[in-house]
Specification:
Blueprint (H helix, E strand, L loop, with lengths): L2 E6 L3 H12 L4 E7 L2 H11 L3 E4 L8 H10 L5 E6 L4 H10 L3 E4 L4 H12 L4 E2 L1 H18 L16 H11 L4 H8 L3 H15 L4 H10 L9
Parallel strand pairs: 1-2, 1-3, 3-4, 4-5, 5-6
Helix pairs in contact: 2-3, 3-4, 6-10, 7-9, 7-10, 8-9
Amino acid sequence: MTIRVVVADDQAVVRDGVVLLLGSADDVEVVGQADNGLDAVELALRMRPDVVVVDLRMPGLDGTGVTERVLAAGIGVRVLVLTTYADDDAVLPALRAGAAGYLTKDATGEAVLAAVRDVAARRTALDPAVQRRLVELVTRQQDAASPSGPPRVAGESAGLTRREIDVLRLVADGLNNRQVARELVISEATVKTHLNHLLAKLALEDRGALIAWAWRNGMTSTPGV
């Protein structure tokens, strides 16, 4: 199966490099390029690729706006953000808009290709640095809302099953769904089910908040953030 991709970046050198990289893979076909957000949306709606690789800062419409419009169309296109930015105003809005992946431009070519394949396969692809940033961002937001911070509680006290705790620890340690499935010898569908149950039980909105909860409550094998 060939993965059809649209690449959107206003910097020609970067865009050409990504197109060249993706075009070198036997299982990827670049079906369109755009140098602004509005053209990226138009291409996505017309070409219906599997993945749109999009920068965040572009003229016309930024990457978050592109993500929102493409997903609102309900045509099954997935979005992978590939950008220079990993600051407060970039990471969370893009993921909340529905981006399935987020990489910074210092990622290796191998990492970019792997992320495109993961996103096309309906998996999440997060740069490790971005995942750490998510923990910092969400933890800081929670501290602002509750200066004293939430109490540290064991997973069992929150009503989590042993397997849900196992999944949570691995996700908090930076593993993606495929890696968690491999580690626990379960299917990716089962991992997704556990994650949905975790979000519901802990009343959290997204993966970033879930990771932050795990770190704050000592449910990770890696100390610190």
